[in-house]
Specification:
Helix content: 10-25%
CATH architecture: Sandwich
Strand content: 35-45%
Distance between the termini: 7 Å
Shape: globular
CATH topology: Jelly Rolls
CATH class: Mainly Beta
Order of helices and strands: HEEEEEHEEEEEEH
Number of strands: 11
Number of helices: 3
Largest sheet: 6 strands, antiparallel
Mean pLDDT: 83
Number of domains: 1
Radius of gyration: 22 Å
Length: 242
């Protein structure tokens, strides 16, 4: 009987190991040189809207390394928890070339990762980060987002969570967390995370981000089942004096 119990315990241990979180990406920007150093998995895009918030068809998603016109790795903004270097993201008013003052511009700086079978089996992804407003002003707004995109369905957004950044967020908000997002069944789809800056009339748009961490984690239901299973073993052992 003791051998059987030890076998069950070993199996539970294997299950627990299999349900530990998996780090998808981490970045504190300390190892990067100042200036334009973001490369894959980072990319960028721009969406142009008319004054009625209707896309004008001037969307620009070039892929490849992000443009230096929308970000910078810099010093001088960090707090105690951010180290020396941070990332600043802002709008690219240089695109499109016919941008009018009454139009709106959404500038995206984001990274993407193809969700693996092992990550999808865990069931959830979480995104933690630090953020602040550096010089958001006028009608400009910004957010940090985490989303699942399906390239096989016309790049449709399957799920998204976001954290709004306001002009009043002038002190670092640390360990801000976007709610966990469901990635079960999303094998082969893209997990995207990054910043969105929405602006008009050439308003100032700078935001700071740091200490990014994206992890695939077990769903609460999975952990709950393991807890019940483990409690059952303890009760079984007590009842039968093993």
């Amino acid at each position: 009987m003791r051998i059987r119990i030890l076998t069950i315990v070993a199996l539970v241990g294997c299950l627990c190991i299999g349900t530990q979180g998996s780090v998808v990406y981490q970045q504190d920007f300390e190892s990067l040189g100042l200036g334009t150093t973001l490369t894959s998995p980072w990319t960028w895009g721009v969406v142009n809207y008319d004054s009625n918030l209707v896309p004008t068809g001037g969307n620009y998603f070039p892929g490849g390394d992000p443009s230096a016109a929308i970000y910078g790795v810099e010093t001088g903004q960090a707090g105690a928890a951010q180290g020396l270097q941070t990332l600043r993201a802002y709008a690219d008013y240089g695109y499109p070339p016919n941008f009018e003052n009454d139009q709106f511009l959404e500038t995206l700086l984001y990274a993407e990762h193809t969700i693996t079978a092992a990550e999808a089996a865990l069931g959830e992804a979480t995104f933690t980060f630090d953020y602040k407003s550096i010089d958001l002003g006028g009608v400009s707004t910004a957010s940090i987002f985490l989303k699942v995109v399906d390239p096989g369905a016309g790049w449709a957004t399957v799920a998204v969570e976001s954290q709004a950044i306001f002009s009043t967020d002038t002190a670092w908000v640390e360990d801000g967390t976007v709610a966990s997002i469901d990635i079960s069944g999303a094998e082969g789809m893209l997990l995207q995370w990054g910043t969105s800056v929405f602006s008009q009339n050439y308003s100032p748009t700078g935001i700071g981000v740091d200490n990014l961490s994206i992890e695939a984690i077990p769903e609460p239901a999975t952990l709950g089942l393991l807890g019940i299973f483990g409690a059952g073993i303890i009760l079984f052992r007590r009842n039968f004096k093993i």
